[in-house]
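Appendix B, record 7
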Amino acid sequence: MKQLTIGQLAQQSGVLVETIKYYQRRGLIELPSRPESGFRKYPPETAQQVRFIRRAKELGFSLQEIGELLDLRITSGASCREIKVRAETKLADIHQKQRDLEKMETVLSQLAESCQGRGPLSECPILGALEEKEEDNRE
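Structure tokens (predicted):
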């Protein structure tokens, strides 16, 4: 198969060139050696690896977690169960974030409803509530 320039790799992977360079600095993809012509060439399978990273990011995996998933792919003796546990852990994290967002939404809705949208800032119930919370956290 034909080797790819970094621009071709970016295009085939659906990311920017700078993203590929960042993934290289993070050790997620290998930096090919520079031939005398000066242009690095990437094997076609690198595009698949970059797409894997992009999709895993879209599912909420951090770059560190993605690196661990990539390592598991090449680790002899690793099992599908190990990947499933990581996916279930990420799913639990997402559920917790959803609960946190719902709490934030409820409180913010109550604050917005309590404000008439007129009057001096010193009487704003939203600012007052935010100041109260700050004071509560200092104790």
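Remarks on this record: The mean pLDDT is 90. The radius of gyration is 24 Å.
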